Amino acid sequence: MIKKIGLYLLTLFCFNVFGADKFPNLLFLKNKQASPVANLEAVEWLSGHWRGQAFGGQIEEVWSPALGGSMMGAFKLVVDNQVQFYEIETISEENETLIFRLKHFSKDLKGWEEKNETKDFKLVKVTKHKVFFNGLTLEKVDDNEINIYVAIEDSGITKEEKFTYIRYK
After folding, report:
1. Which SS3 state, helix, strand or coil, does residue 89 take?
2. Is 16 left (phi over 0), alpha (psi -120 to 50) or beta?
3. pTM for the full predicted model
4. Do β-strands 157-167 and 136-142 pair in parallel, antiparallel, or remain unpaired?
5. Predicted confidence (pLDDT) per residue in 95-135, tens digit
């Protein structure tokens, strides 16, 4: 089951365009569409320690402030007081735009992706409170709450999954 949960990002990249009614909080790059100009100021509000509930357990993300042209983050899913998997994430400034990258790891830190592979989400659009990457959206609700929306594919059906996080103190 946990591998299935992690596969949501592994299968995400085969999608190009979906209807807005099916995925109201997600955007996808169209063929050969370039990412807009942006920098890390667009996501500086993401910095902090966040917790929420998903996949039958507790989820946690911790994001560093920008340094050296990137922000780094870590994700963890805990079910029944046991770590199910981790993600290491970055948002980096590259070619005058942003890119979100991640790698998955089992609870024993064995990587899911090949050694030199990452899952990359190109930037689609930036608004005041949302940053849209290809199939992944970061939303600032307020200073103490964020939502992350992701296109998840399971058994051939793709749906939008919402993760709500509260700032952890």
Report:
1. strand
2. alpha
3. 0.87
4. unpaired
5. 999 999 999 999 999 999 999 999 999 999 999 999 999 99
